[in-house]
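Figure 6 in text form: structure in, sequence out.
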């Protein structure tokens, strides 16, 4: 009988010793799993921040380059609508996949009002666009500065020194005419750009945007030219052609406020009509 009790006691002791070991092993495994998850989530969080900053940087560079090219083409062509058309088509084809090719602060503000982009992206775009236009002015001015001077004999025959294209001054008493011309032209532009966003092919987007600029400049220019003004439809390009004079309220009102209001109205109107068309189709 003593032998059986001893054997039974040994068995029970063996079971008691095995239980703590198993519990310790399970506890160790659980702690290791928690640490691995924490490290993974930390790496993912910082990777997301890096990807967002890189995305904004790439889009900003694209807007900078695109607006630089547009301002340069506008100055070189003296604002001719047909030249601006081909310039915009080429620019959208080049950088449209990177940033959407707004290349215009008025379009960027219109897209922000229409909740197509965030406020941060809008600010980044506008800064890049203005800097690109300013660089175009500096570069072209440097090229013009290298042109040879006109001799007295050539000047006698009416030849003049090469000059950089600048916008005409606003005629006193005709400011409202130019304001509404810019407003109407920018509305056409905003309407076209909003429609281009719904195009699937990049070539279609480029052509729609370019034609929007062409039609806006052509229609608004017919009224502006009558009073000796220049049609621009782009606040950044207005900087490049030296149209803004901050000593007077009218240049900013005409070439900034009118362009922004017009582009916003055209953008929202296009979105409204598109939503009505889709809802009618669903019915």
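Output sequence:
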């Amino acid at each position: 009988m003593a032998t059986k009790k001893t054997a039974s006691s040994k068995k029970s002791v063996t079971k008691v010793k095995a239980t703590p070991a198993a519990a310790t092993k399970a506890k160790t495994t659980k702690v290791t799993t928690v640490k691995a998850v924490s490290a993974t989530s930390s790496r993912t969080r910082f990777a997301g921040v890096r990807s967002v900053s890189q995305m904004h940087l790439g889009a900003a560079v694209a807007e900078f380059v695109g607006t630089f090219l547009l301002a340069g083409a506008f100055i070189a062509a003296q604002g001719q609508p047909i030249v601006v058309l081909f310039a915009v088509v080429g620019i959208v084809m080049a950088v449209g996949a990177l940033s959407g090719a707004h290349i215009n602060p008025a379009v960027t503000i219109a897209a922000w009002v229409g909740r197509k982009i965030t406020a941060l992206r809008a600010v980044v775009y506008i800064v890049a666009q203005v800097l690109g236009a300013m660089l175009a002015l500096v570069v072209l001015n440097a090229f013009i500065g290298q042109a040879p001077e006109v001799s007295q004999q050539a000047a006698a025959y009416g030849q003049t020194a090469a000059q950089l294209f600048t916008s005409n001054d606003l005629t006193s008493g005709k400011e409202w005419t130019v304001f509404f011309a810019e407003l109407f032209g920018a509305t056409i532009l905003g309407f076209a750009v909003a429609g281009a966003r719904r195009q699937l092919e990049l070539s279609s987007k480029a052509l729609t945007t370019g034609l929007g600029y062409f039609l806006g400049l052509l229609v608004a220019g017919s009224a502006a030219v009558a009073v000796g003004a220049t049609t621009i439809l782009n606040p950044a390009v207005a900087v490049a052609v030296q149209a803004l004079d901050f000593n007077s309220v009218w240049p900013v009102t005409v070439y900034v406020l009118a362009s922004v209001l017009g582009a916003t109205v055209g953008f929202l109107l296009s979105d409204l009509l598109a939503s009505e068309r889709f809802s009618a189709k669903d019915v």
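Caption detail: The chain has nine helices and no strands.
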